[in-house]
Specification:
Blueprint lengths: L8 E5 L5 H9 L1 H7 L5 H12 L6 E7 L2 E10 L4 H9 L8 E8 L9 H16 L5 E7 L3 H9 L3 E7 L10 E8 L4
Parallel strand pairs: 4-5
Antiparallel strand pairs: 1-2, 2-3, 3-4, 5-7, 6-7
Helix pairs in contact: 1-3, 5-6
């Protein structure tokens, strides 16, 4: 539950009818810079269709603020994506069994820079603990040049635990990533 006066943040599974909106978000310069996705209907179907159909082990979740779709959170166990997990391990990152990773975006540039991203990530982490009993940690690599995303993670309570050279999403970026982590709170 949100504190009084704060907007309510909720998540729901990405649906086929969300793909045009997702394409518009991915085309926004502040998103395209870091996500580097094609936005044609065919590309959106290729990249997100399996998730929409429930054929993907990870989850693509639409972020709702007071019932309005404003962004996307991707949530997955790293064990379900062995090449990505293995790349992290090979770069010297401690990836515990049960580690979950997140990726996130706010599609409307007017919603950035006001703390909403921090609230979304903090809520995504909280829900990982509540909804994924096997989740032991949240591990999120971010290109070192993405200072806004790094600040969001830090303000949401994740700590920088490693630096690693990883394949960047955008080929224009260098491989340097900062790796952030939060561990499941002890009960």
């Amino acid at each position: 539950m949100s504190p009084p006066g704060d907007p309510e943040i909720a998540f729901r599974r990405l649906a086929r009818e969300d793909l045009p909106t997702l394409g518009a978000w991915l085309a926004q310069p502040h998103v395209a810079r870091w996500w580097h996705h094609e936005t044609t209907p065919d590309a959106l179907e290729r990249d997100f269709g399996a998730s929409v159909r429930g054929e993907e082990p990870g989850e693509d979740l639409v972020v709702l603020v007071d019932g309005v779709a404003v962004g996307l959170v991707q949530r997955s166990f790293l064990r379900d994506y062995p090449p990505y997990r293995d790349e992290l391990v090979a770069a010297g990152v401690d990836v515990p069994d049960g580690a979950v990773t997140l990726d996130y975006l706010l599609g409307d540039p007017a919603r950035t820079g006001h703390g909403l991203g921090t609230r979304v990530v903090a809520e995504a982490v909280r829900r990982a603990w509540a909804e994924l009993p096997g989740a032991s940690a949240v591990v999120v690599p971010v290109p070192v040049g993405n200072t806004a995303s790094r600040r969001v993670l830090e303000k949401a309570g994740l700590r920088r635990v490693a630096d690693a050279d990883l394949e960047p999403d955008n080929p224009a970026d260098p491989p340097q990533h900062a790796v952030y982590r939060a561990d499941r709170p002890r009960e």
